[in-house]
Prior knowledge:
alpha/beta; five-stranded parallel beta sheet; 16% strand; EC 2.7.13.3; transmembrane helix; HATPase_dom; two-component regulatory system
Amino acid sequence: MTKRGRLRVLLGAAPGVGKTFAMLEEARRIRADGVDVAIAFVETHGRAATAAMADGLPEVARTTVTHRGVALEEMDLDAVLERHPTVALVDELAHTNAPGGAHEKRWQDVDVLLAAGIDVISTLNIQHIESLNDVVEQITGAPQRETVPDRFLRGADQVEVVDLAPQALRDRLASGTVYPAERIDAALSNYFRIGNLTALRELALLWLADEVDQALKGYRAEHGISSTWEARERVVVALTGGPEGETLLRRGARIAARSAGGELLAVHVSSQDGLRTEHPAALTQQRALVEKLGGTYHQVIGEDVPTALVEFARSVNATQLVLGASRRGRAAAALTGPGIGATVVRESGDIDVHMVNHAEGVRRLALPRRTGALTARRRLLGFALAIVGGPLLTWLLASVRSDDSITSDVLSYQLLVVLVALVGGIWPALFAAVLSGLTLDFFFIEPLYAVHIHEPLHLLAVALYVVIAVLVSVIVDRAARYTRAARRSAAEAELIQTIAGSVLRGDDALQALVDRTREAFGLRGARLVDATGAELAASGQPTTPSRDGIEIPVGADATLELSGAELAASERRLLTVVASQLSAALEHRRLERTAREIEPIAASDRVRGALLSALSHDLRRPLAAATAAIGGLRAAGISLSADDRRELLDTAAESLGGLGALVTDLLDVTRIQAGALSIRVASTDPESVIAPALDELGMGPNEVSLALQHGDASVQADPVLLQRVLVNLLANASRYSPAGERVLVTTSTFADRLEIRIIDHGPGIAAEKYDDIFVPFQRLGDTDNSTGLGLGLALSRGFVDSMHGTLLPEDTPGGGLTMVVSLPVTPAVPVSDSAPSGDLS
């Protein structure tokens, strides 16, 4: 059985990064090592460096296929199989073969070569991967009909990214290395924008990183490795609001940076029993520092801080948890038990915990703080103090007992009752009061070692013990309740502050509110839906409010659905605040939608305003000239010579003729009806508009060059308005072009737009003055109208805007100004049989 060949794919983020060149360079290297290499199909795209690299390498002859009268060269699969090189070079893996071949796609031909035992080196751009096709279209606006299935690409033995920085690729494009000169401007302004190239580059690197991750998982499964290999670090830093937070964040950022793709997350737990916000200003500064370090800030409310921290870390799949060292002394730790750090370490499981020392890590002995309402733990401590403290106090007092010590004995037991009340509240205090009274009667009041109350005053003493215990317990419980309420309110205010901060920093308001709500209340899922059930924002797992969740009304036509936990009344009250903010965010979104809907009306107003400005400017000069000429004739009477009279009449005729032409022209191109601009949009071939515009200006081959590459595409435009725009742009370009330098007019299509470019190589315009040139009849300070009245760039932009297009200036490579008219393409009628599309590369 023939051993299957190996596939090596060179993956690029965009055309022109050097995939084909790198493939040929690798072919030369392995051929020098004695390997039989042959070119099965390589497309040089007319690039001299690529052709030079291919020169001298063995090549299998191509086959020619005629399709619709056009001769197309394709890879001859049978010839390659017969030649059977050790390594075959096959360019453009996603290429669609001409009809009549053995397979529809070139990757299917490559699959046959691999099955025959031939190793293949091929090239591919990221936009041709099937699963990324729609993502790339969203980024670039250019749909791709040629794709390679992910299963085939993931089956490759080796995938390498041929990388090039976006600006370096643009420089290569501008130099003419990638495309011919007539395609450079359109390419730089469309597909090869810096933003597009950066996004495509990131997409290629992420796809390869995911492929490497899948390969690692496959290796571990194949070798039976069950232990965790954390290739990517996700570091959670716990913030208390104390001054040590900056130290912890920087340490966490360093840990995250040690591995590629590491993430930094900061979390602050607000709770009545949790981490206190001792310095609110410090927490605000730390939140800003998190963003500077490239991390994200989160806030949760939890009854138990260690549990809340560990649960949050697990919910985000954290690998590391960074905590500050305890700020309590040994005595405080002995009295109150293990701290947060020790509990987190015990519950963290496979999450690594870093205890970071800091300047605030050591404190002097201080009384334990009462940090909330009386919990079960506090009550148990109260009972323990009564049970342990009572016998110890009895032993101590019995060892120093005398006839005169009864007063101090009574006060000592009273002190014990007060301490128990402070620690555990009313029930432990009552227990300690009864126990103290009985112990005092048994050990210190005659007759000894018997409980016998024969004096009413002794019974009164026990009653006083109980009253004192109750009073102290009530005060303690009330203080604890107020403290809990105050800290709860502070936590709620801090949560609202965090939510508001997310919105103000530019996050999507609805998504930020839903995300922070889910995190803050420890919910499994949360989502916002409108009255029709359509999802507006969601976070976490899908919610099922009818079974395990709750619904909070948001305004009149939306609902916040929550699932995963029961919420207390105070938490539901906070949710009403969140709901009001969601309602405000929804109203803001509705207002934005309304603003977008009235934008066409505003655009029409701008056109009308520009038109009126143009009229006021251009009518003034010919009217003034005609008035002066006629006035001169009337004043002079018969004293004028024949030549003077003729000159004044000519001036008046010329001015009135120009005025009439202007009014006729403006009324013709604008067709103002009922105070609004009426436009007759139709499918228009740009060539049918460019030619009349050139004829109107009298521009011939010596003054203008054409590079029309829009094919059969047409635009949705008013041909009369579009001609007026082109006349103005061509006149400006001709006026500012150097002597002997021709104006270049190009057309190209990109996504659903067609662009007409008027390119000159004159002095150009500084980028900061781009807005100034669209002020009505601004000619960079030139007020001479002898070259024609014109409509002005302001009116031209108004016309283009009214046709749902754009008019934008750009720098011409090498100097000059390029005016770009972008208009929507007329939708094509679908056909069942289409010619094979070409690859961008």
